[in-house]
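Section handout 9: paired folding examples.
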Amino acid sequence: MKAKVSIIMGSTSDMPVMQEAAKILDQFKIPFEINALSAHRVPEQVAEFAKNAHKRGICVIIAGAGGAAHLPGVVAAFSPVPIIGVPCRSSISLDGWDSLLSIVQMPPGVPVATVGLDAGQNAGILAVQILAAGNEEMITQLVSFKEDLKKKIMKANEELKEHKFQYRVNT
């Protein structure tokens, strides 16, 4: 089995966020790899990875990083496959704002699809949606996934009805 998605992160401190993407890929039975690569500490390895990922069958790269968060952009500079950037809060970040702005503000010609701060799960879902283009079986799985989300909210609203307040007007 060959990986179709590569999950990379600037350091293993990003793993709590990035494992949420891995859980989604597992749920949809999509083979993936997961590694730590630092744009600042091992830039040559990052460039080599990015240049060759598509040759190894990688169709989407999910890149998470905190602080200056250059990893997604550097990978996008070298790779022809779609890159999904995940800005991560870190011990050195400005509550994640530096990460978010570093990833979302890419120059023309070097796109990175950016999900919300610490949104590893959304990155995984977006990777599945990219892979599902033209694949009816995966589209069906995604429709079912979204229906399950709808059911969770409907159930939550039913449970909220149990909370009684004197001035509550919705029933």
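Moving on to protein 2 of 2.
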Amino acid sequence: MAIHWLDSETVTELNKVALYEGERHALNPGSDLEGALNRPWTWHRYEGVSSLPTLAAVYAVAIVRAHPFQDGNKRTALLAIRAFLRANAVRFDYGAYDKEAAEMMTAIARHEIEVDELAEWIESYSE
């Protein structure tokens, strides 16, 4: 199975979509967006991870914790989950803006949740 990966251009566009009116679209100085986006590939290549929900979770954790954008990092991470899964023919539907989804992204930022638990949550909303 060939996995379709997200690139920085796609995630940058997702950040633009995620922003609320008045928020600024810009990379944080010294941010490592590329490094964050390479993490799922590394897990796949060197750890043998092929579970799409797990790789989507790695994307989300990497984006949230790298904080590459001025605004909207958690919302961008949530959109990245959906975009990655969609690119790989998996439907991820947590509903319209959902409080649970927002809480999951905030839990990542607070280091209250790790990849495995997030992957289980993603899988529960995937078909």
